[in-house]
Amino acid sequence: MQHSDKMQKLIELVRLNPGVRSCIQRIICEVVPDSVTISENGKPLNADLQRVLGPWLSTFLQNSIEMAFMCGFVVFVRRRHENIAVPLLLPLGSFCWAVECVTERTKKRKRERPCLYRYSVRPIHPEVTEDDIFVYEFLPPALKLNNILPSPLDALCSMRSIMDMTETKIEQVLHWNSMKHITTSERVNIPKDSTAEGVSLLDDFRRYLVTGQHLDMSKNYMTLNGMRASLTENPMNLSSKMIHNQFANNEEANVHVLPPNTDVNELSSLELKTNLLELQDVMQRHVTEYFHMPMLTDIAGKDIGAFVQRQDLKQMRHMSSFCCKLIQFTYAAIYNIEEKTVEVDMPQPSGMHIHTADDIKKLHESNVFLPSDRLKIRKRMMHNV
Questions:
Q1: What does pTM read for this prediction?
Q2: β-strands 95-101, 117-123: how paired?
Q3: Which of 20, 53, 78, 234 is the most exposed place for a label (fewest CB within 10 A)?
Q4: Are 362 and 319 within one domain?
């Protein structure tokens, strides 16, 4: 039960949370090309294999980045597509994992590097076994007291749980405040007779105030009109009939008749001293700091903006390096060759950005452009691409 709840929270965080989803999608757009180019032993793949494998590995990388941030590793199996061996990721939620100690008696995994601790992945699919999977680490495993699906997003997941609880409380408060809550209490005057009979009557009243039961209290005293009330109809019923007859033609009038010794009070509205907007701002700040993507409101000034761009570029290059190593490991695993014979050609994120025509002018004056670059820029400016 705990595994399923934790799995649902993690999947909702990476798939439905706008901040996390935006950061992951931005990394994918900056790092992953439309087609991955691979060379084996210094020679490019033949055209037919590259045509199938290039776009397939591009899609594989997009989903791998999402899995890496959610699980801390990437797990896939070997399958065939168009009679070509391709890697196939296990869908999120189709496997469980933990951190286990590696000893001499631990069963070795395919293409496993020397380690003391590793991710133990257990597939749920009936046709996939632990011997079929390949695991590539994004972050090294960390030992925690709570070893239920350890994830790099545990801190964000905890923050999301606090926000969910706060949103639930706010909904309950709004539901309570949307209705009027009235309390009624009976007003009873305590007798002031100092005689023995009066003291006994005072005890009866105190018992009535505590228990709400008349017990042996004098019926004559509790009756509105003394002994005559017991011989005639209840005056409350008489007044109720008279009022209802008066408003008989008005169907929208709801008449409520209470005893004359009743105090009516309205409960005040509830006030939850928690600002949801502040929690959302803290959550968004935690997300951007985790992905090394500062919020736009934090960027002020030329120097700070340049520093943020350098930090962002370092993060993108780090993710690009991870993607290259992952593709190198994946290609070597599905074709059972050595990783050092595989070369991956992926464009590296650039720190140079063209925002306005002045940027193009400065680059042109610096003699940076080649004739082909000028043609590309001209086509873009003329909207021919």
A1: 0.74
A2: antiparallel
A3: 234
A4: no
